[in-house]
Each structure stands twice: as C-alpha cells, then as structure tokens.
Amino acid sequence: MPDRLIVANGLLIDPAVRIEAVRDVLIEDGKISAVAAGLSRKSALKGAPVIDAKGKWVIPGLVDMHVHLREPGREGDETIATGAKAAARGGVTTVLAMANTEPVSDSPSQLAFLRAKARTDAAITVLFAGAVTIGQKGEQLTEFAKLRAAGAAALSDDGRPVMNAGLLRRALEYAKDLGLLVIDHCEDLNLSNGSCVHDGPEALRKGLKGAPWAAETVHVVRDIALAELTGARLHIAHVSAAASVEAIKAAKKNGVQISAEASPHHFALNDKEIPGYDSNWKMNPPLRGAEDRLALLAGLADGTIDAIATDHAPHGCAAKALDMDFAPFGVIGLETSLAVALTDLFHKKILTRRKLIERLSSGPAALLGLKNKGTLAPGADADLVVVDPDAAWTPAAPFFSKSRNTPFVGRRLKGRALTTLCAGRVVHAL
Amino acid sequence: MAASFKQNPPTDLLKGRTVSFLFSEPSTRTRSSFEMAAKRLGADTLSFSASGSSLAKGETLLDTFLNLQAVGVTHFVVRHERSGALEDLAPLLKASVINAGDGAHEHPTQALLDLLTLRERWGSFKGKKIVILGDIRHSRVARSNLFALKKLGTKVVFCGPTPLCPDDFKALGAAIERDIEKALKGADAVNVLRLQLERMEQGFVPSLADYALGYQLTPARAELMKPEAVVLHPGPINRGVELASEVADGPRSVILEQVANGVLARMAVLALCEQGRSLA
C-alpha cells in the first residue's frame, strides 16, 4: 500500500500543463500520481488523509534559484536547516544556494559535503551552485567537469561579477560542453566602486555614494555579446535597471540564449521609499528609481524576465546595525517572496495568476533543467503549496530565518502559503 | 617513395649538398629524424641555433637565410614559433625550405609520417574515420593531418572542449564531436594531441585533471573504436593527461612506428626537393 495523501477541492494552477481548474491531487510515495476532479470521493482511496484546499489555490512549489544559506562559514546568520525552514514557510520547495560561502564552494569535495548536509538538515530540495573561479577571485576557472560530477546544479560567482571577459568566454564555452548554466552577477566594479545606494537624486540628497544603473547594464550588454559569441546559455541574476531589461529583451529577440531573474524587493520597492539610512534596505544591486521598477514589471509581464528569485541574503543584526556605508549588502526574502509577488504583481494586475506561477515555479525549474519540479503533472515530485491569495498579514520578526534584515517588515501584504508539501511531506503548515 | 626507402635505402642522393637546421623551438623527434634522414642520404649537415646567432642581434630571418645560402646551404629545415614564418621566405631563396613546424599553422612532414603509418595499417584511406583528440586549436599537427586526410577521402572528426576545439573548424572541413565516447565509436584510428601544461594558466582548461576527466584516452574509451583501430600521438606525451600509459604502451599504440617512419618520410621529402632542384 503506497503512502498516500490527497489535496482536495483546490483551484489547481499548473502553467506547465495549462491547467487552471478545481481538481483533486493524489500523491503517492512522494510523487504526484493523479490529477482529477472528485478523486477524494473514490472508494478505492477511502481512508487516505485529505488536505482540504476548498477556496484556495494549489500550485507547484516555488523554485528560488538565488539564495545564500551562509553555510559553511557564517552559521550565525543562516544555516541550510534554517534557510530551508524559511523557504518552506514561504512556499518555496527548491532553492539554489550560491557559492559565496566561507570557504567558497569551488571544489568537488565541498559540493559533496554540502549535498550530504542538505539531505540530513533540509526538508526541502537544496541545490548548490559551484563557483566559476577559484575562491571567486576571477583569476582561474574551477574544475567544471568535476563540479558537475559532484552534483553542482549551476555555476556562479554571485556576490561578485566575473570581471574578466576573456575568462567568462572560456567559462561559457566549457559550461556549454557540460550542459551547465552559468549565472552572472552583473556589476562593473569600476563603476559601482564603493557605493551603497542607487546613483540618483536620492543618493545626492542623503549624501550617499551611488552605483549608476550603467554599472549593471554595461556588464549585461557585455554578457549578451559573450553568450552570442559562444552560443552558451547565460543567466543574469537580480536585474534592477530599465536599460538592462531593454538589452535582454532585444537579445532574446535576436535568439541569444539569455535568461534573467528579478527580486521581489526590486519589483516592489524603489529608492525613494528607503527610510532614512536604514541598512535593511541596502542590497546589491540597490533599489533603483521608479522608472526602473516599472521596467521590471513590464519585463516580468512580457517574459523578458523569466524568474522571480529572492537573492535571500541573511546578515545578523550586529552587521546591519552599521552605518549605511559600512553595513553589508543584502536582504532576506524566502518568507515573503510569494506574498510580495501576490501583492504587487497579481493583485495589482501586472501578472495573471498563471504567469505569476510561471515566474515563481515552472520558469526557474526549466532554467535549471529540473524536469520533475515546477509542475504537478503525474510523475512529478509532490512539491506543492496551498495558497490563500487573499490572506492579509504583516511580516514581523521573529522569522524562521536566523536573520531579520528585510525591508518588508511592517508592510501590509495580501496572500500567503497555508501548507507546503515537499516530496509529499508537509514541511510547513500555518 | 618513403615506403620504398624502407626496403632499399638510398645512400648518396644528397651527396655534396648541405642541409641546415634552424630550430627556434625545442624539438626531439623532428630534429633528430631530419638529421638522420639527411645523413642517410649522404648530405653534410650544418647546425644553427637562433640564440647563438645574428638573429639574436636583430638580423632579419631573410638576411640570415641569404647569408647561409651564400655559405653553401642547399636545404633549410626550419621550425619556427611564429605561424606562417616561412611563407614569405621560401620564394626569395634558391635553396629548398622545408617546414618542420610553424607555430599553430602546419607540420607537413608529421602529417606525411602519420599517413605512412596509417597506410601500413589501413591499406587504403577511403571511407576510414580518424578522431583527432584534444588541443586542436594550438595544433599544427591537427591542421596538416586534416588537410592531407580529407584529400585522401578519410573522415576527420575533431574532439575536444570548445575552448581548445572551436566550432569554426567545421569551415575547414572537420566534423566536430564534443562527446569523446560518441567520437571514438567505430573509429579506425585516433590521433591524440599533447595538452601543453601552460594551457591551464592561459585559461583554456580549468586543470589538467578536469581535462583528463572529459578527454583522456583511457583503455575503456580506446575499446570503443574498431578492434583493429590504432592510436597515434605526435609526442611528447603527457602520460596520464591526454593519454593513459596503458594505452600509450598497449597493443593499439603505433607511436614508435610513427617515429621510425618519420626518418623515411623526411628522407623522401629531402629527395623530392633535390629532384625539384635538378629539374630547375
């Protein structure tokens, strides 16, 4: 007798198979085994536990392709275990953890260690990126073939850009041969040099050093040229500037194998909203101007931006208590991404619910080549979220994350995850 | 001609001639085998090193050659690190100029000795398939092999990571296959190229070990070829990098046959140049 669970009566939204209808979902041994109306009334399934999702949405688990879990090296800010709990609370069932740990995840042995740790510590699926260069120093490529054999799900020096274009060219060629996705953090360090906010009137008013939008866009344009030259797939992390969106849109139209993600803080907030010198609003790239935010919304709507990713970046209170200039970059996001996306994209009619789920789940799953994620079709992993799209709530500490650095504290949000299943097991219930 | 030399070695075809060797790059096999070839044909030989000559003082290559020609040199055998270094020189000299490898351009006598070795094994070139494996980008051997084998009707497949084996080689007539197992399947021969250690520092491969994981010719991979297929390598071998020792020393290896055939092929080249001079 298989281990069974039925999620009944919910509005199933599964963009990958184009379903938006009330359906029951039968889960057997961690996989979706059937999707149909009235499954819970079948006599053969009598006695199976049922989660009633009447009046709620049932969606595939969110895939967040950009998080920092701080393990190893900074376990005081976050661990694989706490990051996974925060993810489950936010309806996220798969994350891609970036390689800028201490030490950097640039070796097969560290990848193997992290994957073993994730199997014991995390109830959700935690994937790991390997670094593009040794120590993320931008000087020498890591051993891509060995990293792939050790289970690296992608390659990225995120936290730092690959500044050397010649090196990124070789990285793209090598990654293409191996079928690995390269994710680049686009920032020309000579342009952003020493800044903490967006370079614009707000920075001038506050007397803070700003990074111009061009610091991102010149790097994006360079990366597009290299993706075209090599024919490799390249993913642009945390797009923030209108000109970058425009460049990516044109490149996609020209057939370049480029993809992009946007973070909830970038599409929901702009630099005018930063309260004083609150470093919980400091991240890299910075919150940009109102027009940049509108361009991100348009990019999310027209598909220029493929995925919503949090860039979940935990930092302890002591570090964030430093001045705006000196505090570290980054905000947490796993517990609020679904709610912010519902509030600012769905309820404000920027995205339909189907497109919303595409950006949050099936889109990033496809970019990472995860065939059994991002959908609730029979055979897929039973990663599923019951969502109340209208539940009003206000994020506040304490969080499941070890850190609390987020600009969304105190903001009224509409919609949240009620129950999160990963591989058929309840990993969060409100 | 080279094959006939194996049975009946000539003794004095180049008597009274002087063959000069100008090698601006290190060489073991090519230089010694050319020198042996010249001596077997009865020629005098004149060694010449770039570092101990006027070249080091800034004399142009052409002036150096014209002077040596005036001294009485009739054949120049030249190895140069710059691609195309000999293209402009040869027409300006009465002496024969033989390319012993120029940069990443061509190494014609290596291709000839490879052909001789393959013909002894294959009989005919038509319809055969050879895989050239490894650092194609920097290999003059790969280029000369490609052009010669294509002419003879052999299918040439280049295999290596994109940085060392760019897709643009298709335009030169090679097929490209990234997957080493697919490339070797059913092949009649594989020519394994040396991976120079400095390619890692130059960023073409992350490390020698990572390269070996994807592209080393291991015993298991070699067995994917036809049973009678052979393994060539122009030398020098980096054992355990591009080629496993078990394969280098195994029954498929014709690496030492290549070296022996090198003397014969180079004797033939020198003799043909001499015939050309006599007709002129």
Contiguous runs where pLDDT drops below 50 for at least 5 residues of chain A: none
The SS-based structural class of chain A is alpha/beta
CATH class of the largest domain in chain A: Alpha Beta
Widest sheet of chain B: strand order?
7-6-5-8-9
What is the helical fraction of chain B, as a range of percent?
A: 25-40%
Query: Helix and strand succession of chain B?
Result: HEHEHEEHEHEEHEHHHEHH
Mean pLDDT of chain B: 92
Gross morphology of chain A is globular
| Helix count from the secondary structure assignment of chain A | 13
Overall tally of domains of chain A: 2
Name of the CATH homologous superfamily of the largest domain in chain A:
Metal-dependent hydrolases
Q: What fold name goes in the CATH topology slot of the largest domain in chain A?
A: TIM Barrel
Structural description of this entry:
By secondary structure, chain A is α/β, with parallel strands linked by helices. Chain A folds into 2 domains: 4-58 and 381-391 and 413-429, Roll (Urease, subunit C, domain 1), CATH 2.30.40; 60-367, Alpha-Beta Barrel (TIM Barrel), CATH 3.20.20. Chain A is 30% helix and 23% strand. In chain A, strands 1, 2, 3, 4, 5, 16, 17 and 18 form an 8-stranded mixed beta sheet that branches. In chain A, β1 (4-14) and β2 form a beta hairpin. In chain A, α4 packs across α7 (213-230), α7 (213-230) packs parallel to α8 and α8 runs parallel beside α10. The longest helix of chain A has 18 residues, at 213-230. Chain A is globular. The two termini of chain A are 29 Å apart. Chain B is built from 11 helices and 9 strands. In chain B, α2 links the parallel β1 (18-23) and β2. Chain B is 38% helix and 15% strand. The longest helix of chain B is centred in the C-terminal third of the chain and has 25 residues, at 255-279. Chain B has 2 domains: 2-105 and 263-279, Rossmann fold (3-Layer(aba) Sandwich), CATH 3.40.50; 108-249, 3-Layer(aba) Sandwich (Rossmann fold), CATH 3.40.50.1370. Chain B has 280 residues and is an alpha/beta fold. Chain B starts with a helix and ends with a helix.
